[in-house]
Amino acid sequence: MTGTSPAIELRGISKAFGPVQANKDISIRVMPGTIHGIIGENGAGKSTLMSILYGFYKADAGEVFIRGQKTEIPDSQAAIAAGIGMVFQHFKLVENFTVLENVVLGAEQGRLLRPSLARARKILSDLAAEYELNVDPDARIDRIGVGMQQRVEILKALYRQADILILDEPTGVLTPAEADHLFRILDNLRAEGKTIILITHKLREIMEITDTVSVMRRGEMTATVKTADTNPEELAELMVGRKVLLRVDKVPAKPGKTVLEVQNLRVRDHQGVERVKGIDLTVRAGEILGIAGVAGNGQSELLEVLGGMRPGAGDVTLNGAPLPLEGRGSDGQSRRAAGISHVPEDRQREGLIMEFHAWENTAFGYHHDPVYQRGRLLMNNAALQRDTQAKMDKFDVRPPDPWLTAKNFSGGNQQKIVEAREIERGPDLLLVGQPTRGVDIGAIEFIHRQIVTLRDQGAAILLVSVELDEILSLSDRIAVMFDGRMMGERLPDQTDETELGLLMAGVSGKAA
Amino acid sequence: MDKMPKWADVVLIPLISLILAAALSALVILAIGEDPVAAVKLMVNGALGSTYGWGYTLYYATNFMFTGLAVAVAFHARMFNIGGEGQAMLGGLGVALMCLYIPWPHWSLALIGATGLAALFGAAWAAIPAWLQAKRGSHIVITTIMFNFIAAAVLNYVLVNLMRPKGSMDPATARFPGAVHLPTLHELLAPIGLNFSKAAPANVSLLVAVAACILVWLLIWRTRLGYEIRAYGHSETGALYAGISPVRITMIAMLISGGLAGMMAINNVMGEAERLVLNATEGAGFIGIAVALMGRSHPFGVFLAAILFGFLYQGGAELALWTTIPRELIVVIQALVILFTGALDNMVRMPLEKLFLALRKEKQA
Predict the structure, then answer these.
(1) Distance CA A466, CA A149 (A)
(2) Residue B238 is nearest to which of A308, A350, A405, comparing CB atoms?
(3) Which residues pair with B28 in a beta bridge?
(4) Residue A509 — pLDDT band, cuts 50, 70, 90?
(5) What distance in Å separates the CA atoms of residue A259 and residue A462, rounded to the nearest whole number?
(6) Distance from CA of A307 to the nearest CA of B (A)
(7) DSSP state, A229?
(8) Which of B147, B259, B266, B274 could form a disulfide with B123 if both were Cys (CB 3.0 to 4.6 A apart)?
(9) A344 touches chain B (CB under 8 A)
(10) pLDDT digit string (tens) for B146-177?
(11) How far apart are CA B28 and CA B7, in angstroms?
(12) Which residue spans within A61-179 are E strands per DSSP?
């Protein structure tokens, strides 16, 4: 071998799930001491590829070379032994264990715990000093924030002597500041000669931190380029296969009368903990109010109360009429009758019944609509199917088959089914939570356009999203929530990510 | 993309499970020194070889259709109603009250009245666990099991202390009057020239059970209520989002479920025994769970599975009568069928799914 061999080299990896070819003849070389980005739409095969590398799936064809050695990775134990560490999108931590216990879990030495813990404590403090990976080793996982939890995941991998780290969508749950810190850590790791594979769908991150980037589309590797030689527009085009509008095209809002007025809204969760601590907001007809914030700061609860999914307290009016927040008249049916449509944050658990056909989902929440009835008892399935077909055509749902069950659509198309249902109602107020979570770039463009169109038709729109880009490009006004309170309101063209990021972290910004 | 064609899911998997259960049963019969082939012949002959056998098979099947539907309806709302047994006992009480204390002019009117009160009693018995589940979160499996015991005790008290005729030493009600006698299949089929066994207990309730299958199918897949029940069953948070009240659906689904279980009494109490005895249900409430499992909670599946279990019941009785195979072995065979069709479903499903995927890939290549 000449020179340094790649830290990881994949040759001709193919993997099929039934008729779906998730990975098609993929080859990739990742040099040691670099950060290599893998970018692609949902379902492009990024996660499958990494799962093969980590031993969760067995490739149908192809070879894996680690540091120039052909390596078989039948399971994750083998991957760890080969020096590969993985940080999953959804952390795999024991909530009621301490940081130290989580790090040691599965890598204990001997029958007694104490020596392992003592050794781990020493190693952790070394790692912390070396890479800015500061975590209190005795803190319990459920008492520390997600940014910290992610560091624990990285520590777990390093403790197992990983020198190749795979991170799957690591910034999804982080504030901008936390993401910056993560990137500093990754930078330090790179400087120490570690190899990092970063899987993401955020172009900005790719541009910011990676050395090389590979683009995947429909199971194939469409390009591998030096990050310095490319730009976001080109990457987006490579991902989607056509030119993409990254900015939302919209005219300034022409706000009309007040549609939604919220005063001193308070919401408690099931355990009686107050999640929304007295907020005020108004949304007028023909404008989009965007609520920014890190997940878990009360935005979900706000949407759920307004959508009739949980009780709350306070004064809320819709078009001047009071909206009951608990008891009779506060359920989802009453909300719909009052003219509120709701695209929930979690389409799989709330917005859709995954086992239902697409046409059954089109009636979901609106199954009392007289249009869908035949006589007093039966439902008019034929009308429902026709209606679904029309909505699918209009929203470009693929495949446009009303008889397919919801779980068989891709995430983006599931989201389109929900949004077609809610937007086509022509509501006075549209509640939208995470409208493009896990949705392809191509579909994001489409969904954003639909929301703006509804705004231009005079609907009031309350948007909740953890994607700051989305908030900035869609909203006419931006409110930031932190710890159940409103941190302040900004206009999108008079603020930036840094200021919003500070507000999201609970730091009051300069007076606007 | 579905993993395999629908026919494989609804026909092939149960069939293979049954064959496996039968094979294992054959081994057990061999192990106790009997001839499995002869045993199968005896079972088939005894249950299906004569109108007498059919009469018993269908009589049992009628019971199982009611209790199977009961479990199926609750299951669509993701509730496991183990209380079919107790609900059917209370249904029996309802039938007995209707038949004994109202002078009916004709059996058809009596059937309507008895069906109504049986359903009402069964539903009422299910209502308490349902309410506890909906309002207090008490797990329905636990409460319905407990209510089975309470039902047995209530029935015992009522039969011994209240409804037992003076001077009788048997904890049972008096015989129902002749006017409420339900026509048996023999009496129903004789006018159209078919000679059905006189001695067999299958009766007009069978038709009610079949009608119930059709009505439940309509309810689950064609009505708004069925839509809400299924939506709630698949996703509770989804139901909340759509404004479907969990309390309401829990109550209604369990009331329908209990009503169906209670209706079983028109077959065993009114159609067969023509009086209410202790333990009239003979475990049919529990068999209903297996029937619903095997029938995939689909009314047509329940119909077929009920007939299969009717066959096993009647064939098993014949086996115990004519061979030295002990009665307990029949229970073993039935248990094997339940085990394979219910609990070990994935054992058959997984390899079959792989097979279909491989076949499809080949076709594409």
Answers:
(1) 18
(2) A350
(3) none
(4) low
(5) 11
(6) 7
(7) G
(8) B259
(9) yes
(10) 999 999 999 999 999 999 998 888 999 999 99
(11) 31
(12) 61-66, 69-70, 84-87, 164-168
B63/B309 Cα distance (integer angstroms) = 10
All structural domains of chain A with their residue ranges? 8-240, 258-504
In whole angstroms, give the CA distance from residue A380 to residue B360. Answer: 35
Cα A116 to its chain centre, rounded Å, is 36
Contact A307 B227 (CB under 8 A): no
Reference A497, options A270, A279, A208, A259; nearest CA is: A208
Identify the CA nearest to B79 among candidates B151, B134, B152, B148.
B134
Residue of B nearest to A334 (CA): B243
What gap in Å lies between CA B280 and CA B298, rounded to an integer? Answer: 27
Q: If you measure CA to CA, which chain A residue comes closest to B223?
A: A378
pTM greater than 0.90: no
C-alpha distances in angstroms, B199 versus A447, B50, B52, B265, B310? 70, 12, 7, 20, 17
Give the bridge partners for A379, in sequence order: A373
pLDDT in tens, A68-82: 899 999 988 899 999
List the single best residue of A366, A367, A373 to mutate versus B (max B Cβ within 10 A). Answer: A367
Q: How do strand A69-70 and strand A61-66 relate by DSSP bridges?
A: antiparallel
Q: Does residue B296 carry a pLDDT above 90?
A: no
Asked whether the beta carbons of residue A334 and residue B243 sit closer than 8 angstroms, the reply is yes
Q: Each residue of A143-169: pLDDT tens digit?
A: 888 888 888 999 999 999 899 999 988
State the average pLDDT over residues A323-342: 94
Q: Which CATH number fits domain A8-240: 3.30.420.10, 3.40.50.300, 3.40.309.10, 3.40.50.150?
A: 3.40.50.300
Q: Which two tokens stand for residue A487?
A: 């941190």
Q: Chain A, 318-337: which have a CB under 8 Å from a chain B CB?
A: 331-336
Confirm if B278 and B155 have CB atoms less than 8 A apart.
Answer: yes
Window from A192-206, A349-363, B329-343 with minimum mean pLDDT: B329-343
Rg (CA), chain A: 25
CB atoms within 10 A of CB A269: 14
Same CATH fold, A258-504 and A8-240?
Answer: yes
Whether the complex's predicted ipTM is more than 0.90 is answered with no
How is residue A485 annotated by DSSP?
A: E
The residues, any chain, with a CB within 8 Å of residue A164's CB and separated by 6 or more, are: A7, A8, A30, A66, A82, A83, A84, A85, A194, A195, A196, A197
Q: How confident is the model over B103-132, as a mean pLDDT?
A: 97
Give me the residue from A307, A332, A378 closest to B222, CB to CB: A378
E-only strand ranges, A403-505: 429-433, 460-464, 477-482, 485-490
Give me the CATH code for the A258-504 domain, please.
3.40.50.300
* CA dist., res. A358 & res. A420, Å (int): 11
CB distance from A60 to chain B under 8 Å? no
Query: Lowest-confidence range among A20-24, A32-36, B147-151?
Result: A20-24
Domain edges within chain B: 60-301
